Amino acid sequence: MDSIGIVFPGQGSQYIGMGRELYEGFHGVREVFDQAGEALHIDIAKLCFEGPQEALDLTPNTQAAVLTVDIALYRVFESAIGIEPAVLAGHSLGEYAALCAAGAIDFSDAIRLVYARGQYQQEAVPPGEGCMAAILGLHRGSVEEICQTADKDYGVVEVANINSPGQFVISGTTAAVEQAMAKAKEKGARMAVKLPINVPCHCSLLNEAAERLKKYLDHIAIKDCAVAVIPNFDPEVIYSRDTTKKLLAGQLNSPVRWQETVERMSQMGIQTVIEIGPKKTLSGLIKRIDRDIKTFNIEDKASLEVAAGFFDGGEAA
């Protein structure tokens, strides 16, 4: 059997109705939703299934909702398929799901942690003063040069996500990001578009938020991972009980090195990656990074059946 990796999506993957089909069909999913609601005193099921979208898109709500769906669907994977992965990873917020799945952080602690994380991010920059934008079709060096040579009078702009060859996200003050988008188009970018995220994630504007998160983490019980987890902050290392707090705090105001994360999986011999959570954005990125890796996702009954069929001798996408 191929060596299996599992990845979890993060903020930006949310949509009204995510997880509903499996919530209705699996008791274990309902248990995870109930646990999240009890921890936060929020009706997470209603938020995920009914919204409204504006409420779901608020950063603390988004992070709690996506983590809940990620872990609920992972419980379905465990019960319905039960294959032991060789390695786990998550994109930004998704890394918290990976740590939960690996047994490093209790889910009740993690759900409160990501809700606080979202609050710290939201409070770090006043609404409208920061944003993020996707840049497609340029080399990494060109995007880094655009950010490094940006007019400092406009504020901060930095590379926030290195998602795949030719696909990046920049983050910073709104005026600086808009200037960088214009420069990217001048340099031949295929696309430069703002993202519907109201926080400038993974840049130095969140330095204070990272310090607040570090203090919160001092109160969280952390164990060693039962399965290897690759951190976005430094894909060359593996999470341990001693490094988790530093890596999670550092992740908040540093780039998500997703391309390197997938390349590390490939170096570890991973041949099949299962994306567990809403949408299948990470599967698309993985294909751009390494076409030899087989991918599929689990987010509803149909995709669960495809995944189960794969382990019975079917083919991944």
What does this structure look like?
Helix content is 48%, strand content 16%. It has a 5-stranded parallel β-sheet with strand order 7-2-1-8-9, sandwiched between helices. A 4-stranded antiparallel β-sheet has the order 4-5-3-6. By secondary structure, the protein is of the alpha/beta class. It has 2 domains: 3-124 and 205-311, Malonyl-Coenzyme A Acyl Carrier Protein, domain 2, CATH 3.40.366.10; 130-198, 2-Layer Sandwich (Alpha-Beta Plaits), CATH 3.30.70.250. The chain starts with a strand and ends in a 6-residue tail after the last helix. The mean pLDDT is 95. The protein is globular, with a radius of gyration of 19 Å.
Question: How would you describe this structure in keywords?
Answer:
four-stranded antiparallel beta sheet; 2 domains; 16% strand; 9 strands; Malonyl-Coenzyme A Acyl Carrier Protein, domain 2; 14 helices; 317 residues; Alpha-Beta Plaits; alpha/beta; globular; five-stranded parallel beta sheet
CATH architecture of the largest domain: 3-Layer(aba) Sandwich
- As residue ranges, the low-confidence spans are none
The end-to-end distance, rounded to whole angstroms, is: 16 Å
Strand order of the largest sheet: 7-2-1-8-9
How many structural units, i.e. domains? 2
- Derived from helix and strand composition plus strand pairing, the structural class reads alpha/beta
Instruction: Give me the strand/helix succession.
Output: EHHHHHEHHEHEEHEHEHHEHEH
**Which CATH class of the largest domain?**
Alpha Beta
Give the biggest beta sheet.
5 strands, parallel
The number of E-state strands comes to 9
**In the CATH hierarchy, what is the superfamily of the largest domain?**
Malonyl-Coenzyme A Acyl Carrier Protein, domain 2
Share of residues in strands: 15-25%
- What shape does the CA trace take? globular
Gyration radius, in Å: 19 Å
CATH fold title of the largest domain: Malonyl-Coenzyme A Acyl Carrier Protein, domain 2
Share in helix: 40-55%
H/I helix tally: 14
The overall pLDDT average reads: 95
